[in-house]
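Can't paste images in this forum, so I'm doing it all in text. The chain is below; anyone willing to post the predicted structure tokens underneath?
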Amino acid sequence: MIRAFNGKMPKIADTAFVSEFAYVVGDVEIGEGSGVWPGAVVRGDFGSIRIGKNSHIEDNAVVHAWKSLIIGDNVTVGHSAVVHCSKIGDNVLVGNNATVLDETEIGSFCIIGANSMVRTGQKIPDRSFVVGVPAKVKAEYSAEAIKSLYQEMVDKYYQPTARKETELSLTELASQYKAQGL
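Text version of the structure:
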């Protein structure tokens, strides 16, 4: 369901997929090749929400913020995660059931582990592996590790290059859902 709020209608790229069972409302922009999956809520009522290209808000996740929120390109917000922060950089995975609280900033090339809770106002640097309650940076990825992880993520989620013929990226899957009117 896509709804206007206070005169602001979500702007959704033609190639983006929004499930009919998702709720997207207000001052929201969703970029090319991105997806908002069943049960997800993206609520741009207090502040604007900008979601980059090839980013996916998976089933039952909640994206909301008191102020503006920017989610970069190639971001996956896992199932049932809560994103209530101000920034998520590019190429980030927010694991299933993770919580990212108010005014937090997540750098690029980060992994926020499943079930982690990133505290209010935390600044997570680029290339961080973050886990726990409260979440702590457990490791920083080297440039070589980032290149390998990034390529694996691109191959798995966004490009068909290194996958079996029967595997789909999230972007390809979203495209199929969109084409089938789901």
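The first helix runs from residue 143 to 158. Helices lie at 143-158, 170-179.
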